[in-house]
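Researcher: We're teaching a course module on how sequence relates to structure. For the next exercise, students receive a sequence and then see the predicted structure as tokens, so they can try to spot secondary structure elements on their own. Here is the exercise chain.
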Amino acid sequence: MKAEDRTLVLLSSAAFVLVLVGPVFLILDACRDALPHLKGAFFVEYASRVPSRAGIRAPLFGTVWLLVLTALLSVPLALGTALWLEESTPRRRTARWLQGAIRAFSGFPSIVFGVLGFVVFAQEMKLGRSLAAGVLTLTLFVAPALVMELQRAFASVPPGVREQARLLGAGPWERVRRVVWPLAWRRATAAVLRVFGRAAGAAAPLVLLGVLTFLAFTPETLGDPFTVLPLQVFAWATRPQDEFRGLAAAAVLVLMAISLGLQALALWVEGGEGPGGADKARGRSGGKERSGELPEGRRWGE
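Model: And here is the predicted structure for the students to work with:
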């Protein structure tokens, strides 16, 4: 092996070790501080000024409600936009302009969406610090990423399959329902799960919204105040007592479990398209998806 090749291998290995060791060390350090606090009462108690009585019930419920309600609002909007851009765009100039706007929005710092949420939803629409304002703000934050990820999922369907369906007389809706969605639903579902796995830890869009960090009840309606785990972590981490730092570490582990759980679920859903899975699927269908033919045994209209 040449000297430059050995140098490249050495530098690549060192970079891999540094990337791997850093997060592992941080997780182990958080576990050391968090394990004494990860008890049943930690999940059912509300926040308290007494560390031994403090829990994450309000931020945990708030995080789950926020993610679920945001998904119910943003996924249909992003799905419709992605399908419009990929399948039935009447004017390509309009599509290019809209695509550029979506890419620009996806590159904005998350705090910008917090400012928009505060000005538009909290002040102009008089929603204040309510759960509804949080849902609308987080929808603004995740929608551009959702549209782009769903577009990638639909673009993975071979163009030849679409063309064959068009030649057989299928309209746009029929192509989507019978050809595009059956071939792309795994990647589309996994894309949604990955986006919300990242959004679970988003705190910046909610900071300027004025979301509370101390709440002794769980929201029951869209007009109720709420809090989320990232902001509760920040509130505890800035307290001077060491016990609150342990509570912050425990809340971080819970937040990581939610995020990693969604990412793992995305990998499981995408199993047919994962490493080796896509090749096996193509092997079962004789590789006809790649060549632009419908899989064997599939007839149009069935």
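Model: If you want an answer key for the exercise: The CA atoms of residues 59 and 227 lie 5 Å apart. The chain has one domain: 54-291.
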